[in-house]
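Quick entry, no commentary yet.
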Amino acid sequence: MEDIFKPLSLTIKQLLGNTDALYQIPRYQRPYSWSDDQLEKLWEDLMEAYHADQNYFLGSVITAKPEEKSSYLDVVDGQQRLTTLVIMLCVYRDLFPNINSDIEDPESVDSDIIKDSIKYKDKFERLRLRTHSNHETDFQNLVIEEKSSIKNRRPYKKQVRIEEEPKYKFMNTAAFFNEKLDEIGEDEAGRFINYLFNKVKIIRIDCQSVNFAIKLFQVLNARGLDLSNSDLIKSYLIGKIHAKYESDQELKKQKEDQFMDDWKYCEQVAIDTEESLNELFVMYEYYLLGDNPRQSLYEELVILFKDRDPNSVISDFKAFVTRYRDDVYNRKDALMFGFWYIKWSMYWRTIVLTALHNGYPEYEEFLSVFRRYYYINWIAGNTLSKIKQTSFNIIKWLKENRPLPYIRKELENNMLDVSNNTMNRAIEALNYDLYNEPWCKPLLYLIEYNQQDNPKYLPIGDKSIHVEHVIPVGYEKTKEWRYVEEIEGIEDWINSGANLTLLSGPKNIDARNYGLDQKMIAYDGRGFHRNDDDKVTSFLITQKIVNDYKSNTYQKSWTVKAINDRWNWFCDEAQGILEIDLSANKRNKLAESITEKSSAASI
């Protein structure tokens, strides 16, 4: 009985020189992905072993007989190292066409041996890439064809990062080895290739079926060695296709082709949304489970997919991620913009996607209710542990199509619960010091969106947008603001909603600690050194201050009444957005804690 798998210890000369040494990267594999980090590590390890004249173990390659009749072996694991070796040999061939030609030694590697390691009998490529037809064409044109490998120049780093364009990685790897080999020179390169072919070994594990090879691959890599969860999930589902349609080769090929088309579509969605496929699968896992995972992503999904058809799984996942791209990532309105500032991104995105994917009938209304729940918890200072279980409960409620009044009531009860005290803590947090809170800028953004008909997204990471103090933090250091010291309790209001607004770029620099008149020039958009336009700041919450100044609402001064009115306006805006009762906050006005003399003071 033939062994189900056979491990072979091979030198590189045997790996790429034996009569059975013909390999193909099957369609279900991801494209070649090595960049400088992996190349440098390989080169340094090889050179260290070479200089110490030690044998070197390069790892394992798992192969399988392909489903169709072929002289080539499918590479189930080890394609990155194998592809890298072939590219290195192509650079050797083109850079040193006469390598070791004058050395008479049976272990010496000359150009004929190198060429035979690239093409068997100068006819059959030792390595074929079938991940995509254009990948094979690029590999041929950039690497395999004689004299082509040394023509490559380093691509831009951003090109190397494009996962679905391995041609840039082919170019980068070829240029890398061209630099390294040119640096050590032909004589040293000749000695190194002798070492590489004769003293570097690899374990090739030949399996009788692709299905078993994939299972072995999963076992050997179950701890995540150089693999992502999405790779393991793909190989698991491909293996299920092979096992399910073992008796019908034509149907098996059709199902695998269909699966790979859908998989590649999902990979493109990940690129379009600047997301990793792993994180998309995490959201899908949360959606399917509706509960906190107990095991790794791969282990949980294997259980969930066990009794499901692989093509049905990838089709549903495709619909799931398409919803994410079209209706979450690409949605441009104030309601969705507000979600992107929330720190519990994996949870809110899964919940929104669950509502979409499940066709929840009250979707738009649900978004407002749900966003409010997360913001109030955030403002109250709650951590992930406080909202995690409720988040999974929301997923269950959505999948059960619980009516919105039920969900609203459950969330409201959660926030009003005495043990949580979430609502009261949020109200208190909004009362004074906002400036040093991580939610300060997002809340001001939401208030800004509330002023606009067609708002544009304001990135939270945009360092050119600043939270501006009307009364400067260092007011006692500037003569125009020194009188503020006379206002009892003013220090509690410097970082409050009464004294904060938004400014962008140089406007914030212009504003600094200057008096109100000069600040208005900066707020107005003209700046101290610009007089070529009269446009006001692009932020409407700041423009409101400018308009009040220009209309002489507060005698062109920042009076106590101006501070009070701004505070009440802020409370009204926050109250409307968060649907939270801030009437107690509004009653706690600055005017109640100051003297009549202070009330008459102005800036």
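second:
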Amino acid sequence: MTHGVVEIRGGRVRGVERSGVWSFSGIPYAAAPVGDRRWRPPVAPEPWTGIRECNEFGPVAPQTQGFMDQALGGTPGEYSEDCLNLNVWTPGLDDERRPVMVWIHGGSFMTGTGSSGLYRGGVLSREGDVVVVTINYRLGLLGFLAHPVLDEPGQTWLDGRPWSGYGNWGLADQVAALAWVRDHIAGFGGDPDQVTLFGESAGGMSVSTLLSVPAAAGLFHRAIVESGPPYTCTGEVAADRAERLAEFLGVACTREGLCSVSADRLAAGNEFAETAGGVDAGLLLTPVVDGGLVPLAPVEAVSAGSAAGVPLLIGTTRDESTFFALGSPKVMSLDHEGLRRWMRRITPDQEAADGVIATVQAARSERGEAVEPRDLWSAIATEYVFRVGSVRFADAHVAAADPGVGTYNYLFTWSSPAFDGILGSCHALEIPFVFGTLKNPAIQSFSGGGDDAFALSSAIRHAWTSFARTGVPACEFAGTGTVAWEQWDTKIRATTVLGPWPHSPGLVHAVQDPRAPELAAVDSLTGPLLGHRSA
């Protein structure tokens, strides 16, 4: 390496050194999925001559920009189907073989980018002495449309391996990015045998799903799932959804018909939500169990041992769904009868639904928390969409894990000051604490600041990077030493609380089965495989 230049397969790339960290932006890890490559598996990028200057972020997957990126992420850059690029931050271009942390962004599988201001990897890389990678992948209909008409026998991908399946294109991109990390990260001071995959929301759901994907086995060695229990659908549901979308678009549900639609039109997928049918957790599109890339529902695969050798750190925020309530006038103006009607989405048993409402209301009242219908909606939705699935996934993992492979759970409880505090500890709030991006004024308006916020961020970064290094998370505080995490157990549900906790000083707490009444009440209403839709 000379002057920040690294040679990779395809050509040479040059990065930029800032504050002790080298950054490389917009490195292509696969060829542009355009033309006849649309809805086909990723293949190697075209080589280039000379040195490719990697000082600007690459194009972003076509999308309608989401609220979070609009408010906090700054200008995302150019939208283009030629979006399969990644970014690297490293403390040194040497032979140190540091742990590698690969981030998958969220955005409901519809929006987002690895170049968001929330996910800048410099602080995490420098202070944790790790290599941080963030990626872009195909989104929306371009990334997750699935129908048997898209299945083509004889297709190959990556290193010539056979491809089978008819969806999960964005998930396949993620596997391709992990393969790039395996092949090239040593040149950036990273260890390809010590890769941690982490993500939040749809990114966390991607991590959960990739734990079940045979093609991803061995490409990562630890997993962190933030607010991301696995959501998949069956092939029947995906096909019905695709046919409804094709009808809405006025084209035949064939490869030729679907490929005739422009990327811009396909990127505006949210307008098809009412037509699509079968949505889960507010998601228009999810990975599909297609018998190809995803052969089994993730909970089934993990229960059978697909992730037995991969340590897992999984958790949620306390008030996930307040983030979504704020954007819904119907929820914000909800009355008690409206809440009862909404509960029919979870169960047709009104008596059982009323019991859940009463249980959650009593638990929140006892803790002195708000109990307006919108607050109860947020609390129940948080458990239903995020916590129940995360707890069940932790249960599945710990039951099948190899000896010495840990399962760990967290609950993030820091509250946002935004909108007069109505968000509480909402969805995505932990992200700037993980990346150490709290000093950004726009982000701080969401996350809050001050000594406690920076101390909590430091503790979380230490936990995440120690997990990446050893498979065991730990929090470190100046003057108090290291706080170890208890492993998950299906009975006592040992959980590390990150943030304030009633009647307990400090910012990190070891508790058992937190917020148990609402978790148990909602869990009693859900089926055995929450998040997997059948026809």
